[in-house]
Amino acid sequence: MGKTIGIDEFIYLIDKYPIVDVRSPSEFARGHIPSAINIPLFNDEERAAVGTTYIKKGRQEAIKQGLKIVGPKLVHFINEINNQTQQKNILVYCWRGGMRSASMSWLFELVGYKPLTLIGGYKSYRRFVQAYFDKPYKLVVLGGMTGSGKTEILKALKEKGEQVIDLEGLANHKGSAFGWINQPAQPSTEHFENLLFDAIRKQNPEKPIWVEDESISIGKVFIPQAFYERMSNSPSVAIEVSVENRINRLLDEYTHCDSKHLIDSVCRIQKRLGLEKAAKCIKLIQDGNMAEAIRIVLEYYDKTYRYGLENKKIPPKIIAFDGNVKYLLDKLVEQNLC
Q1: Taking the chain (338 residues) in consecutive chunks of 10 residues, what is each chunk's mean pLDDT?
Q2: Residues 15 and 87 in one domain
Q3: CATH number, domain at 30?
């Protein structure tokens, strides 16, 4: 079955060697090591059937059933790994580092690969990820009201050489009730954590990391509690942008999307927005008056943002921002924030 390695060595090698996840497609979809390819030993139905046999008839019968399923697919597995990589050193894992990864590593080694199998499997990786969020990395949080252009600023900071993690980019969501529009499907919270860990581990722990101010949830995914607490206790900058500039930015962003999606999003917050204002907002969208519809929604989001700002443990540094990114970056340099 090739050589087995622990999680520390595995993490050290994940940027060097291809990673093969041999779990079932549904396990892979729930969460996996970023950049891993999925070559499942069993599909979901096969895995369920073998598991049932194990419970009812025991280990030996389950192994026999597994061999019957896998036997005809051996050539397929070899073709899959050949199609995915020409590199002979590969990393292999299953759920607990058991028979699935051992079996596939044996096969890969048989045809000339040099597999390194993760002891403890994906379960070991997940424990490592969750513990990693407790590390004392340095954060700087960028805040500002909806439509302020924070994502644009983070991109400019990254281009300037600053360390940046785009939480909304990892979550495939822009944070508000409208944040799902024109975005790919969100990952599970589990996989979001994997993506966040993968982004953090690539940063220099001696230098600050810029992140956007977020609530603990971004759409349907949740920021790890330890990371969120560190965000809450980190220095922050809040940019101030005029309402008109924010409306114009949001018009550029949402004018070309399906109006039904906008209306659905208004319905999600209609109780918080107020039924009368929500109805007015929907009518404005239907009439094509997007600027006034956005103005109504911003009243709600601005109120929520101000409340959060007032309750921050460390008051943010407020910087007026008129869209001149270079001016803002100069201000951040003046205040020793970058």
Answers
A1: 91 97 97 98 92 90 88 95 96 95 96 97 98 93 91 90 95 91 95 98 94 94 96 90 92 86 93 93 94 93 84 79 75 72
A2: yes
A3: 3.40.250.10
The total of structural domains in the chain comes to 2
Model pLDDT, residue 253: 84
Order of strands, sheet of 37-38, starting from the edge strand that comes earlier in the sequence: 3-5, 114-118, 89-93, 19-21, 37-38
Distance of CA 114 to the CA centre of its chain: 31
Given 103, 130, 157, the domain boundary residue is 130
Q: What is the CATH number of the domain that holds 193?
A: 3.40.50.300
Tell me the pairing of strands 163-164 and 236-240: unpaired
The pLDDT assigned to 338 comes to 66
Which residues lie closer than 8 Å to 328 by C-beta, 6 or more apart? 153, 156, 239, 319, 321
> Which residue range(s) make up the domain with 180?
136-334
HSE (CB half, 13 Å, CA atoms) of 286? Answer: 9
Q: 72 with 212, same domain?
A: no
H-helix segments, the chain: 7-13, 25-30, 44-57, 59-70, 74-84, 99-110, 121-132, 150-159, 167-171, 189-201, 225-232, 243-254, 259-268, 270-273, 275-286, 290-310, 325-334
Question: What is the model's pLDDT at position 199?
Answer: 98
| Boundary-marking domain end, from 82, 110, 130 | 130
pLDDT of residue 162: 92
Q: Say how far apart CA 234 and CA 212 lie, in whole Å.
A: 12
Q: What is the pTM of this model?
A: 0.92
**Residue 325 confidence (pLDDT):** 76
Q: Tokens in use for 106? A: 């044996």
Indicate if 315 and 181 belong to the same structural domain: yes
281 and 145 within one domain: yes
Which positions are catalytic?
94
Other beta carbons within 10 angstroms of residue 133's beta carbon come to 19
